[in-house]
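The methods section describes the discrete structure representation at length, but only in general terms. Since the whole study asks how a given chain folds, the encoding of that fold should be made plain. An entry of this sort, consisting of the sequence and the corresponding backbone structure tokens, reads as follows:

. . .
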Amino acid sequence: MAESTETQAKAGRPFAPFEWMIALRYLRAKRQEGFVSVISGFSLVGIALGVATLIIVMSVMGGFRNKFIDSLLGFNGHVIVQAVGVPLADYDAVTARLARVPGVTRAAPIIDGQVLATAHGYNSGIIVRGMRPKDLATLKSVAGSLQPAVLSRFADGSVLIGTGLAAKLGLGPGDAITLISPQGDETPFGTTPRSKSYTIAGVFKVGNTAYDSNFAFMALDEAQAFFGYEGAVSQIEVMMGHPLDDYAMIPALAKAAGPHTRLVPWQNINSAFLEVVQVEANVMFLILSLIILVAALNIISGLVMLVKDKSPDIAILRTMGAGRGSIMRVFLISGMSIGVTGTLLGLVLGVVFCLNIETIRQGLQHLTGITLFDSTFYFLDRMPADLDAMQVTEVVGMALLLSFLATLYPSWRAARLDPVEALRYE
């Protein structure tokens, strides 16, 4: 046995079979070593829960960000073109020039105005967007939820409202809604709010409650008359095939828009939201990483106790010819077995949870009676979870690295053990 051990040690082969055998035997603690086994179990469970929690939370936050941006980019323009100081009068020519810019998929003149919507004794402040019927038909996020007949009625002077607003005011297709604009007519007694009733042509659903509850559409010519734009528009929205590259297209778009205009990318309009989401993601990653760190510290304490308990065994192995490198590798295998197993369990648990998160949410919500994801607050009707391969790899890599670092000190301590001192009192 001594000769065999010495031969394997001299071969310089990392993680020899006898090292695996001893390391795995140490993980199967005897009854008198049960406390060490309990610590190892807690370490494994802690790493698994830490990895799973990180994957779930980061996937949910990433899904929330992606879904919100998708709904944002599908509903609003990627770049907004506005005239400086005055309404945009020659919007037809400007729109045509913008539509010809390579990379632009859609250019549409619009008018946005804030109004008070009233019906059945209920009131709600909303934004009315005036848009040409042909442009609305190309806005897939809205037109995709409408029938062709609804778009025909919209062209005849009716309005479209979101599902959230319809539920709030108790309205449906064919009902009447009254819109009151604070920008009314000037009279000797001051400004008189402009008020007009419209028939609802249909109800759209974007999936983002911020839009479904707070937006309505009317034909552009009707919006010009209602808001007093007289042949002008407030802005032109431009959509592109690659909205993340809109900064690179600003010079070409500015040239097409002409002088006395300003261009506002969607990132600038929503900069506060994007910054908040990014900061929250970074903070959550840092905080939840502490779970894995605590589990790694448990690995250290468990291995230190194991080294102390196995001191006589280590001394005997050393006298039989096992080198310090072999002893160190034995405890590296023991610690990394806990880390790798816990990481893989956490990976499986996190991925399965993310793939079924909406079903799990609804089940928990049904059992507890508590609203776990309020769509009116988060602006989405379903809890999103987008698994990012790079992000998952980072979490797994961090867990494995912390587990490896946690094994270094106990392994080094075991390798430095003096056989004579260890066997003196045996």
Notes: The chain has 19 helices and nine strands. Confidence is low (pLDDT under 50) at residues 1-12. Residues 300 and 409 are 8 Å apart (CA to CA). The beta strands are 79-83, 104-119, 122-131, 159-162, 176-187, 190-204, 215-219, 235-240, 261-265.
